[in-house]
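Table S2 (continued). Query chain:
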Amino acid sequence: MQDIESLIHKAVDSRYPLAERHEAFGGLVARFQDMAFGCAYAVLGDFCMAEDVAQEAFVNAWQRLHQLRTPAAFPGWLRRIVLTECNRLTRGKRLQFVPLDEGVNTPSASPDARAIAEQRELREKVLAALKSLPVNERVVTTLFYIDGYTQADIGDFLQLPVTTINKRLYTARQRLKESFVETFKDDLRRQRPSRDQSFATKVKASLRPFKNEDWRSISQIAPARERYDPEGFDLWLRGRKMFDDSRYVRRHYLAEHAETGQLFGYGAIEQSIYLPKYRLFLVLDPSWLRLGVGDLLLDKLTCDLVEAGAVTVSFRDYTAQDEILSFLIERGFIETMRLMDLRLSVGEAEIAPFSTVVEKVRERGISISTLAEERAHDPRYVEKLYDLTSTLRIDDPLRDPFAPASFYEREARLWLERPYVLPDAYFIAKHSDRYVGVSDLNLLDVVPEGVTHGFTGVRREYRHQGICTALKVRAIEYAKRHGYRTVRAFNSPLHSELLALNERLGFRSLFSYVTLEKCLKEVAQVSSDIYDQYAGRYRDDSRCRDLIIVIRNEEGRLTAEAIGQKVELFPESEKKFFVKQFYGEITFFKDESGEVTHLVSRTRGLNQPETVLHAKKIE
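Corresponding output:
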């Protein structure tokens, strides 16, 4: 025990160089790595997950080692950290993992199929027998056979007397066949961390806050990404450098080897202008992802998100980055969007072949105007555009699962006046005075010397008449006149007709992106029947008599609409609901007879005080 105490004292003593402190902690890892792994395996029943948990537990222990008041208590303290990590993995991340009675090792490469089948069958019987043991016996048995730990060592780790350890070990042996014990022991020793140095190397990964001079190092940890899409990587890097830390929350870190300084990965969260949404960024080689570096970054960033009060976090990356995407999906992220990145070389674009289509559109009485022209001549342009885009969204397979909000001019005008909107390149197809189609170019997510092709759509009754083609030809003509080199477009595979048209015009698909999202607040399971009770119109007569909040039950989803905005309400309980798009919550109240009487709405925006409305149900 004196050896353990001296290692701990040296590991936490700031008078020693960091390399020596890490070396001391490495001694603790070497001594307890198999024990931590064995404890995790006894609980989880999966070798890979047990190694991940043990590695994370040691990283956690290193970060909190200064909190350990009594060095002699380290074994039991480490065990509690391991069990906490096991609980977090199975409950917090809700992973699907292989049950103990199904987790068999990969069979030998021997060509004897019968021998392989017999070996697999034996292991299945062994694991079934182990699962039948009470968990306290399973833990003791695993620790005893994994690396020859003595009963005293196991007792220190489990904080139990040796007599109890001996009793549990004896009882477990009586339950298991001798052949089962030998097979179990062989499997454990083949998988134990002490079999090589890789486990200890993983534990030596550490995090440090990012510094401005680190930007030039990012390409060292993302060479494949940079080669895959150098232009996109430059845009990504420029976006990170231009982030306004004075207005928005950002936390970012480098993962590196604690002793050598070798870079393993980069991770960041960035607050968007649409509170309380955050974006997650992970850049690391897949070989390090599964060696604990991914969890090291993600766990720290998740803590930062919770501290910042985030409600949702999203992650977007190339579909080719399947290792990172799978890693996040395993940890509770859900795919929300899949888009193809299309590029058109403006100088090579041939639009002459489409002149006949454009002429036929004109002959049908369809003209093409711009947002700038309509703004100057039609006082109802905002309302008419909102009617058009709302109608198109209803037909869009990617739309929200409920109807668009009612027209509210101030809100609708706000979106048309965004700085990335190009009024002269926002094209509107008109039949007489009616808006029937739209297509725009904008400066959002542009590549160098390029412009982005935004939303394109035509009313259902005007489709298959060439209007979409005419709008897009007009956009390409604009790009040519204004000297743009590239037009970028994002296309969902679900929009197959639009994709086919883009390809005929000369757009070529370079990459596909996947967007994942995770809600950081717990969504309660509530019967949608209760939503009918909340549906109605609410008004705060004392503070804002002109503001009506409309609550609806739309196909089992509770929505709230006011001043041109509609959001879905997600339940925290039967009475309290939150909003994902901004910091907002609504709580419903009932009288003694169970009738809903009013709601309390709390909202706030970026750097704004909270607004509280007490709105009575008026109908």
